[in-house]
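Run folding on both entries below.
>entry_1
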Amino acid sequence: MSLFNKISIPACILTLIYVMAYEPIFSPDTTTYLQMQIYRFPGYSIFLRIFSKFFGENYAVFIVLFQGGFGCFAVHNLAQNIYKQFKLNVWQAVVLLIILLYPFYPNLWIANNICSEGLSYPFYLLCITYAIKLLYSNNIRNVLFVSVFSILLCLTRGQFIIFPLIVAFIYFLKSRHKLLSKTTLIVLTILIITPVFTNLLDRSYHKLLHKHFVSTPFSYVNAITQPFFVSKEKDLKAIK
């Protein structure tokens, strides 16, 4: 076992044990996902329905176990990839692990919360993992992993829809001298069509369930969010 694995694997196991020592955390969002409301993305709604169907009243405990285990798996993979690719020393690897595992502890409780962050966080880490592999290796298979995990991520949290386009832009800059090569064209095409395909899946889900061929409303990045966040109660009087 490598030195990194001797650090990372016990850290992930201890994190999972810590997570399972605490109860699941429910919120109003949990109910709206279970109800498959139209303003919720399909990923986590379907995920909750499947677990509640198979595990009944105790479904939340198994969700915490899955989110904790899957999250630790994603943390280990990303940290290992960065450790090898950028040749980190031991202390740098330890700091990286602490940063990546922090969301599983108070006050974030990302695995215990029965909300979409429990899935979107590991999906996001795996997207970064395979994006790094794609950019630093010649293995074209990595673009398929980036695409698949990007689709799963965006169907869980829609604001990440631009992730494949960011990777495509970086890949374009890296490969601009061989832009017309078959490999480059395939990679760029897959990355560019991924958001389009994701949007079609999202719309098709709402068509089947809600009878409307629309993307999930009240989602993505909203320009009004910041003014709402910094506003004060008295500001309401300024609006007639």
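>entry_2
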Amino acid sequence: MKTNVKNPALGPYEAACLLGVHWTRVSRMADKGELRSRQLRSHRGSKRLRVYSLTDIESNWTDYQYLLRTGQLPRRPRANEHLRPGMLSEIRTMENHIEFDDAIGAVEASEILGVWHTWLRALLAKDAIVGRRLISHREGASRVMIYSRKSCEANVQEARKMASSGVTPGRRRHAL
């Protein structure tokens, strides 16, 4: 299912590659107000995951390119500009984009659906909800997922029907 969105939500590594900066710099840029970001709740209940606005990232990149071309750059050029083309092609080929204002974490998705967080992958497999794994090439494949709030709210009944059917995802637990 291909989704058309105006302003996709991006993870920290994706944003850093598109901006040509180190992945830790993106959060500082957001704290300064250079980029819009939203913090999503993690499984521990704290707000640990940030997603960033693609339109703000592209605007910042355009401003940076202008400063670089006109010689007005106050510091050295960005060190990771070479990562931008590869990340752009990965993002363009991605099937499910989630709108920046619509993105939620696994905790919020499972609360909306009224199911345990382990059911989210089964719902994704049945195309009942929209979600995607954030890209990160730092330490192997990322395990972080973001979900669409609208798709979760639209499929609450489907999720509860699956959960009440008695079939549990994963292996059988003998101690439970």
